[in-house]
TrEMBL record:
Signal peptide: none annotated. It comes from Endobacter medicaginis. It is a multi-pass membrane protein. Its main location: membrane. The chain crosses the membrane at residues 42-64, 70-88, 109-128, 148-177, 189-208, 228-247, 268-297, 309-329, 349-369, 375-400, 421-444, 450-469. The lineage of its organism: Bacteria, Pseudomonadati, Pseudomonadota, Alphaproteobacteria, Acetobacterales. Belongs to the purine-cytosine permease (2.A.39) family. It comes from the Bacteria. Keywords: Membrane, Transmembrane, Transmembrane helix. It is found in: Membrane. This is NCS1 family nucleobase:cation symporter-1. One of its GO terms (cellular component) is plasma membrane.
């Protein structure tokens, strides 16, 4: 096959320079070496984070019991698993990332719209998760070192001490991603099991102290099960944490050895691990009611409550490891691919990851944390907008393309996916309509009750609209199925 040089790298002669980059190219079969163990540990590393740990508190605040909360987690993550399993298949079959696959439904130019939106959401999460991790690091260093605690001053509304903690935490991120995707895989291979092992130790402590599951699992006499509406709100809340990742799951599955590896790995790493981890958090928190007289859901606060430097060091390192794990795999990795897709001639994965970290600081997360509701409102609205993208991708791959794609045409402006000058009206209309309806509750007070179901609404409207428009639109003719 003839190849042409592009900015120091080679590209196939059939690929347009503005759409191709070695990081965006199909992963050769010989390099798709992620087993089900790798997929499982990557998901373990992402699921084991402070947000998920504290999620049980939010569910119980809705009125759910501990058992009902675990059931909501199980249902929510089972739905996520199904969506990701089906959306991951295209990545596994063709070795392609999300930002390339999306061109099939939106066109090479139109595909930049959901890519930019997903990239924005990922960088926002990098900022939020990174700042939360830096706060934990700062709290632990202050407890361990009087010199650190004595650092004073503030810059741009944030303490100098926290700026230093952020710099250290950002440097850890940069080190992990410095050697690309394979270093991330190897990091998650250690991080995921390590966090679950520490969680198991905390759970054993909780069971010992409480002489069983503890008071949080004790259902009050006469308690009536929560209404289905409350339960469903809890389910959609769990889905909302990972709904954006349902869009770009091909970024991971493209490295899987087979369909079996990606499916089995996600089954173990997502719904099963989530339920186990949530149970660990409730059992541990249940023990804090007995030991400290009140429930402590914040793991950093729990570590400080023991007044043990050794426990603080050990537990703090685990929290840092867990936060790094989720941020690298779930946020930096997809955001980096999205930036590479926007500037394929200028960026490679490593330089894009560095740029992601720099942009994340510009989001000024310390200002967002003054209004936690603002964070979740933004992320909820973005999740509602990305729901239609998931629905469109599923309909396009399974119903319209019948699971067959011409890889070469995904890298051409004039290929069979070029639609109308690189813009596919069907995908764009379905995206705008689905996103508008799914997010209406955020701007129309009378529809505020719909915000809890925005992901489901977005998927349904986006998928249904695209199915109708794609069937009728001549611009979506699949053409000859040329697989390179």
């Amino acid at each position: 096959m003839q190849r042409a040089a592009v900015d120091g790298a080679e590209r196939p002669s059939w690929a347009d320079a503005g759409l191709y980059n070695p990081d965006l190219a199909p992963v050769p079969q010989a390099q798709r070496d992620w087993s089900w163990v790798n997929m499982a540990t990557v998901w373990m590393g992402m699921v084991h984070n402070v947000v998920v740990y504290e999620a049980a508190a939010g569910l119980m605040a809705l009125g759910l019991t501990a058992w009902e909360s675990l059931a909501a987690v199980a249902v929510g993550y089972a739905v996520l698993f199904l969506a990701m399993w089906f959306n991951a298949r295209a990545g596994t079959r063709y070795g392609l990332p999300f930002c390339v696959l999306i061109r099939s439904a939106f066109g090479p130019h139109g595909g930049q719209v959901p890519v930019v939106l997903r990239g924005f959401c990922a960088i926002f999460w990098v900022s939020v998760q990174g700042y939360a991790g830096a706060q934990a690091l700062d709290a632990m260093l202050a407890a361990l070192s009087p010199g650190w605690a004595a650092i004073g001053g503030a810059v741009l509304g944030m303490s100098l001490r926290l700026w230093l903690a952020m710099a250290l935490f950002w440097a850890l991120h940069a080190w992990i991603v410095s050697h690309g995707v394979h270093r991330i895989r190897n990091f998650e291979l250690v991080a995921g099991p390590a966090v679950i092992a520490v969680g198991a130790c905390a759970t054993a402590w909780g069971l010992h102290v409480a002489h069983g599951l503890g008071p949080l699992f004790a259902v009050p006499p006469g308690h009536h099960p929560a209404s289905w509406t409350t339960f469903f709100v809890g389910v959609t809340g769990m889905i909302g944490v990972w709904s954006t990742f349902a869009v770009n799951i091909p970024d991971l599955s493209r490295f899987a050895r087979s369909e079996r590896d990606q499916a089995l790995g996600q089954l173990i790493g997502l719904p099963i691990t989530a339920v186990v981890f949530m149970a660990m958090s409730v059992i541990t928190t249940s023990a804090t009611v007995i030991v400290f007289g009140h429930a402590i859901w914040d793991p950093v606060e729990l570590l400080l409550a023991f007044h043990s430097k050794w426990l603080l060091m050990f537990g703090g390192a685990t929290i840092i490891l867990a936060t790094l794990s989720v941020n690298v795999a779930a946020n930096i990795m997809p955001a980096s691919y999205d930036l590479v897709n926007l500037m394929p001639r200028r960026l490679r994965f490593g330089s894009a990851a560095t740029l992601v970290l720099a942009i994340a600081v510009l989001f000024a997360p310390w200002l967002w944390f003054r209004d936690a509701q603002g964070i979740f409102a933004v992320l909820g609205a973005l999740g509602g907008l990305l729901g239609p993208v998931t629905g469109i991708m599923l309909v396009d791959f399974y119903l319209i393309r019948r699971q067959h794609l011409s890889v070469a045409d995904l890298y051409r402006y004039d290929g069979i996916y070029g639609a109308r000058s690189g813009w596919n009206p069907a995908g764009l209309i379905a995206f705008v309509l689905g996103g508008a309806i799914a997010s209406a509750g955020y701007v129309i007070p009378a529809l505020a009750s719909l915000t809890g179901f925005s992901w489901f609404i977005g998927i349904a409207i986006g998928a249904g609209t695209y199915a109708v428009l794609a069937r009728r639109g001549s611009a979506l003719a699949t053409g000859p199925l040329r697989v390179v």
